[in-house]
Amino acid sequence: MKKLALALAVSSVCALSVPSNSATAASMETVEAKMTASSAAALARQDMYEAFGDKELKPGQYLWRDVPASAGDERVVVSLGDQLAYLYRGETLMAVATISSGKTGHDTPTGIFTIQDKRPMYRSKKYDNAPMPFMQRIDDYGIALHAGFNPGEPASHGCVRLPSAFAKKLYTVTAIGTPVLIGA
Fold first, then answer.
1. In order of start, what are the domains of the chain with their CATH numbers?
2. Mean pLDDT calculated for residue range 36-45
3. pTM (2 decimals)?
4. Which of the four pLDDT bands, split at 50, 70 and 90, describes residue 13?
């Protein structure tokens, strides 16, 4: 019952945050959006155990299972506390990966976002032309999901770094407008 209530809350917040006539949407960093994202992150950890068993991932690892496209639309849930990213298709957890989020002073923002831009290879305009393979930008300031060094702790300038193989697969199943919920 809790999962159903959260799913309805997440889908309604996401629906409200994504204008139907726009390919890019503003992020929602309100208190309510942050609470919704944090709740989604907490439930995702439970879903991980149900889907994959009692597995602990080491930095740079991920788990992926096939879920039919008919299961629904994709969404990404990021747990900054667990340093994990979760991919859902509909209400079914499809994948989980370790991440490296923003270090102190370069905190990764929390709330509800959408993928605004995707590029298979991109270079940071802010940080010495740093490579950002499989970049999926989620805000107007350069924060993105992308492949990168994954030491098992926050170490980025605010982006969500993903294991390379996971970032490549994630890139193929998401689209402009895919919701990304980032919780504490």
1. 2-16+28-183 (2.40.440.10)
2. 97
3. 0.86
4. very low
Phi-psi region of 161 (alpha: psi -120 to 50; beta: other; left: phi over 0): beta
Confidence band (pLDDT; 50, 70, 90) for 127? confident
CB burial of residue 12 (10 Å; 0-12, 13-18, 19+): exposed
183 pLDDT more than 50: yes
- Do 113 and 94 form a contact (C-beta atoms < 8 A)? no
The HSE-up count of residue 111 (CA atoms within 13 Å, CB side) is: 16
Phi-psi region of 146 (alpha: psi -120 to 50; beta: other; left: phi over 0): beta
Task: Extract the tokens encoding 80.
Answer: 């900054």
- How wide is the angle at C-alpha 2 spanned by C-alphas 79 and 35, nearest 5°? 40
3-class DSSP state of 51: helix
